[in-house]
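Hi R.,

As promised on Friday, here is the backbone we talked about, encoded as structure tokens. Could you run it through your design pipeline when you get a chance and send me back a sequence?
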């Protein structure tokens, strides 16, 4: 019986492998045969606009022209705040001893970051757990936001899709510097000036965290732009590429930044015992 089951499984795997190969072949042939659209700008201009947003700025309520990433950041922040308020007002009072699916999801999510904070910073972890929870959720939702393809009109009159907030270098630097200040606050609260000294030793930390976020999220955006620009079958393949890169970056970058913050926070907030002088030891003896 086991031998027959193994043979059936092998046949199923071969069948699915053949299906995938045929699908890839069809997409490749179609991308070659389908004529591409005329490009209004070169690939260099397309990539530069994706990074610098020289021509893709949006009016912010008529007050100032801003980068699309700023609009994305405001949109994601407002959404998260409203969602958190609704959960606190309507959902949490109805939580039960036997949790439902939504309650289990919330509890597992909170427990994940709370355990991460307690594991890496056993001495002081209350505020750390709350911060890495907020930062992790913001990075994940903000990265996932670009999949919705929200369109807005630029000051030049053409439509543009709002990117992930952290694909703007200003947002990435703000997140990195804020995380560094949180780490510094943990050192000061636990060890005073000694905590400041131990934190300032890692002077490159905000730079590395900022540009790690910016580089990772921007790479996904640029790869998608390249696929849209060069691949003729732009209504199939870019969707797969965008979803794959977005999900991977959302999960990986959320985990990496929160883990780094927890590790460094636990290191600088570690309790340092005061050194006892030899004279005091002799007197105590």
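Update: got your reply. Pasting your designed sequence below so it's all in one thread:
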């Amino acid at each position: 019986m086991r031998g027959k089951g193994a043979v059936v499984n092998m046949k199923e795997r071969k069948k699915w492998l053949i299906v995938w190969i045929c699908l890839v072949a069809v997409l490749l042939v179609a991308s070659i045969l389908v004529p591409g659209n005329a490009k209004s700008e070169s690939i260099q201009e397309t990539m530069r606009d994706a990074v610098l947003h020289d021509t893709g700025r949006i009016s912010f309520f008529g007050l100032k022209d801003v980068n699309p990433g700023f609009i994305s950041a405001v949109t994601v922040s407002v959404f998260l705040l409203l969602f958190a308020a609704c959960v606190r007002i309507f959902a949490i009072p109805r939580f039960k001893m036997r949790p439902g699916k939504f309650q289990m999801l919330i509890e597992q999510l909170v427990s994940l970051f709370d355990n991460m904070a307690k594991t890496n910073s056993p001495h002081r972890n209350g505020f750390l757990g709350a911060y890495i929870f907020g930062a992790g959720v913001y990075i994940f939702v903000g990265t996932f936001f670009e999949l919705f393809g929200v369109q807005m009109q630029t000051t030049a009159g053409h439509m543009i899709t709002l990117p992930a907030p952290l694909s703007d270098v200003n947002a990435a630097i703000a997140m990195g510097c804020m995380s560094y200040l949180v780490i510094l606050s943990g050192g000061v609260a636990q060890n005073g000036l000694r905590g400041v000294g131990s934190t300032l030793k890692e002077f490159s930390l905000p730079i590395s965290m900022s540009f790690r976020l910016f580089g990772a999220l921007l790479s996904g955006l640029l790869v998608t732009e390249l696929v849209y620009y060069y691949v003729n079958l732009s209504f199939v393949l870019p969707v797969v590429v965008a979803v794959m890169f977005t999900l991977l970056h959302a999960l990986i970058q959320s985990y990496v930044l929160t883990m780094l913050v927890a590790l460094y926070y636990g290191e600088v907030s570690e309790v340092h015992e005061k050194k006892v002088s030899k004279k005091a030891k002799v007197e105590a003896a």
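One thing I noticed while checking it: Residues 275-285 have pLDDT under 50 and may be disordered.

Thanks again,
M.
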